Each structure stands twice: as structure tokens, then as C-alpha cells.
Amino acid sequence: MALQSQIWTSQIMKNYYSEASFLKYAQDFSENVNFDIINMADCGFDPAVLINNTTYPIAINDREDTPLSFELDLFETTNTKVSNPEAMEFAYDKMESVIYSHRMSLQAKTGAKAAHAYSPSSHSANTPIIETTGPDNGDGFKRMLVIDILRLKRAYDTLKIPVDKRYLVLEPRHLEDLLVEDLKAFKDITDIVNGKPKRFASFNILEYGENAIYNATTKTKKPFGSVPGASDTYSSFSFSSDEVMKADGTVNVYSREKDPELRATIIGFDKRFLAMPIRNKANGAIISAKVA
After folding, report:
1. Residues 127-148 pLDDT 10s
2. How does pLDDT run across 155-176, given as a tens digit for each residue?
3. pTM of this structure
4. CA angle 223, 221, 29 (to 5 degrees)
5. Which residues does residue 247 pair with via DSSP β-bridges, in sequence order?
């Protein structure tokens, strides 16, 4: 009996975005994907709102959208050996034992790619990058303080980002800094309560450990997959849920059934996925400054 690929691929995507995943709070553009290509429009402006207007006709502004087309990135897992996979299709626990490692690997890699994409490339009014100002953490970096988060809040206030749409994804060492500053206040700041993140300083707070690397001197983001160098630093990142997107494409399972040498079936998966800012607005970061 041939492997039932639909059963295996649907299981890969089951609960793929948990409440604790920052990707759960991004705009989902998956419906706009055709043949693993997504077509978007770069919106030119936000329309003005007139209050008690007395001048008519109301001005007409042309909305000039620039068609944008992106191919979804391809993520592939290495293969694993499975004995009697056909029987697993009728036993959830056995199937999950095989799929779990593949799902975790895909989640880790797509999450890291999205965290890098959501982090600003460099500082601007629309993409604020804040440096930490606290004491030495023992590793030559200044600790994150509450005042650093408040400075990021001020930047979001200036951009008029709705407070319920703001998310701050803490790097674990930054969470440690806050716990050092006030253990009682921050001991459960990244908990999910009733399916929602806790709020602090207008941000929904989450935690993630594979955030972008920055050059500590120029405050510019390093390419994805970069190995930290002596002049580099780590970061937390922030975004508005209205201003970032994710898109899921096809998921495939590959198999070489009943391999005569291994006496088993070889299984691997791939998945198409893309995550990026929509307008490069309200994507922020807090980077750890080096101690002079």
C-alpha cells in the first residue's frame, strides 16, 4: 500500500503556530499564494479621515499600488528511517512520534527566518532601533532596562500604532535582564493567559531565542544565518500585527518505500513559507550595547 501523503502533510501543519509563537500574530496571507508564489501590493498611503467636513466634493487621491511578486522560501528536512509507516497512518501516537522532529525542525528554521525578516535592517523613524543602557551583564553587554522598552514605546506612540497591535519579542538574555531588575514584576511576563500574551508598556510580550544579529557599532542587521563576531550583538524585536505577514505554501512528504538495504521506508518533508514586513513600518528592535 502506498504512503498516504495527505495524512502525513496535514499532520505536519497541525498546531504549527502556537499561542506562544510570534508568527501566530502576523497577518496570514496564505490565501494569496498560487503555485508557491504570492502577489502583494505595496500600498502607497493611508487615506486621511475628515471630521465634520463641509467641503465637497471630497478630494480624490489615486492609490498607486506597485504589484509585487515573491516566491515562497523552500525549507527541507533531512530524511529519517521509519519502520512500517503504513500502519502508523492508523495510529496517531505512532505517526506523531515520527512527525514531531520534522515539525520542530521546520518550526525552528521558519521561525528564525521570520524573526530576522521582522527585525529592521537599520534605524529610521519608521523602524526604530534602541540600544540598551543598563549595567554590564558580565559578558560585556549593557543590560536591558525598563527605560529602554519605554523608549521603544515612545517611538511606537509617535507612529500612532494601536496599543493592542504591538508585540515585543524578547531575546532570553533580555528577559534575564528584566528579571534581574525586578523579579517580582517580570517573573511571569512571557506567560500566555487565556490564549493571550501578557502586556507591558503597551506591548504584548513574547520570548524567542533565535533573533537577528546586529553590528553593535553601526546598528545594522547582519545577514540571516550569520555567525556572531566580536563586533556583533544580539537583539529583541518588535512589530505591529497589522504590518507583518506570513504565508504558508505547499507541504510535501517524500518517501522511498521498503528500502531493501535498510529494511525500512525513508521519509522526509519540505515546506514553502514566507514571512516579511508589509510596509517596513513599526518594525523595531532593542539591541544590547557593548560596554565601553
Report:
1. 999 999 999 999 999 999 999 9
2. 999 999 999 999 999 999 999 9
3. 0.86
4. 75
5. 274
